[in-house]
């Protein structure tokens, strides 16, 4: 009986070790037709900040699901959408990209920054007037901020990057034929989306993804030179990007969230993890709450296009299966199994010796 209990106890340990992923967090909130675009984590105030594509306002979302209006700027609220946003904790501000969603004839692309404590506007800059050629259409999409406070905004129509200084001065920064000559691999109504998600790497470069080609680019901040990151597979429909504390890159696509790793300073990269999405959720971006806790924000944008209304939204934590499997490595399972066998064999042997000893004594 004792041996049976020991075996059952060890088997329970193995089951716990090899069980599925730990529970993840979901933050539900209600806001009729808010249809969020970008979002980011504000560590100082322990909240998410998110932008609305329909209201053109910024909102704060606490971990208990309380949603409050953060900024309603009369220069664009109710007129244009907020797409990418980035919290700049170093300079205590949030930077938001504003865009006219009339893609056939957009009349406005811009960027604005607000103080995280007072909500005060720090600058508001139009980008549609800062172009390579007069009269070209612009689609300001996502934003990343470097250590000096410069903001880098992707132009999905022009396939180049604007740089906006800390005081709001804008200029075309990175434009290269490599950004405009990639073969299109996405054959959908969103083929016009070029450069999209962008992140700043502390080693002095940007990583930028192109939605319709699935290409990933590295842009050196010293000279704005653009390099195509070598990958075994492209990233079709790629949208938002976020860097994790361990140096891996989260890439949001229409069908999946991918985790990329690089051992070459992002000269080359490979997919090392995958989370499958429900495409109807229309997830466009991700954010990090800690160095490893990754969150997504379904936008449900297809419901806007279908003339539908929605009240319930949520921020969802995701976890790559490769991570929680690595948390309980195979060698540990093997050690436990071997320990069970050794202890069981030892007890059988001791029982045999004890019986032999009793016979001799008898």
Automatic annotation (TrEMBL):
Fetch the InterPro entries from UniProt. Answer: 6-blade_b-propeller_TolB-like, Sensory_adhesion_molecule
Keywords, A to Z? Membrane, Signal, Transmembrane, Transmembrane helix
Q: Which residues cross the membrane?
A: 330-354
PANTHER family under this entry?
A: MESOCENTIN, PTHR31460
Domain of life assignment = Eukaryota
Q: What is this protein called?
A: SMP-30/Gluconolactonase/LRE-like region domain-containing protein
| Range of residues in the leader sequence | 1-19
Native species = Sphagnum jensenii
């Amino acid at each position: 009986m004792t041996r049976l209990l020991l075996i059952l106890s060890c088997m329970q340990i193995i089951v716990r070790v090899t069980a599925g992923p730990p529970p993840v967090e979901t933050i539900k909130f209600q806001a009729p037709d808010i249809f969020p675009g970008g979002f980011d984590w504000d560590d100082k105030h322990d909240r998410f900040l998110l932008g609305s594509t329909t209201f053109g306002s910024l909102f704060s979302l606490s971990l208990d699901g309380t949603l409050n209006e953060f900024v309603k700027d009369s220069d664009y609220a109710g007129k244009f959408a907020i797409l990418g946003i980035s919290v700049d904790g170093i300079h205590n501000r949030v930077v938001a990209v504003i865009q006219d969603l009339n893609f056939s004839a957009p009349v406005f692309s811009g960027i604005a920054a607000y103080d995280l404590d007072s909500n005060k506007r720090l600058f508001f800059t139009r980008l549609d007037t800062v172009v390579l050629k007069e009269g070209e259409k612009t689609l300001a999409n996502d934003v990343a901020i470097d250590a000096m406070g410069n903001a880098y905004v992707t132009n999905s129509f022009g396939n180049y990057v604007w740089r906006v200084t800390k005081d709001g001065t804008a200029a075309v920064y990175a434009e290269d034929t490599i950004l405009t000559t990639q073969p299109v691999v996405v054959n959908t109504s969103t083929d016009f989306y070029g450069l999209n998600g962008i992140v700043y790497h502390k080693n002095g470069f940007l990583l930028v993804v192109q939605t319709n080609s699935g290409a990933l680019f590295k842009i050196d901040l010293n000279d704005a030179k653009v390099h195509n990151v070598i990958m075994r597979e492209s990233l079709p429909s790629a949208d938002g990007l976020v860097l994790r504390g361990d140096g891996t890159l989260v890439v949001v696509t229409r069908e999946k969230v991918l985790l990329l790793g690089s051992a070459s300073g992002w000269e080359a990269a490979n997919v090392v993890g995958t989370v499958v999405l429900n495409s109807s959720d229309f997830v466009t971006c991700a954010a990090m709450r800690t160095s490893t806790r990754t969150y997504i924000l379904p936008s449900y944008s297809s419901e806007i296009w279908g003339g539908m209304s929605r009240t319930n939204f949520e921020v969802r934590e995701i976890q790559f299966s490769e991570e929680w499997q690595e948390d309980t490595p195979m060698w540990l399972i093997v050690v436990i199994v071997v320990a069970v066998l050794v202890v069981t064999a030892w007890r059988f042997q001791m029982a045999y010796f004890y019986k032999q000893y009793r016979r001799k004594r008898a």
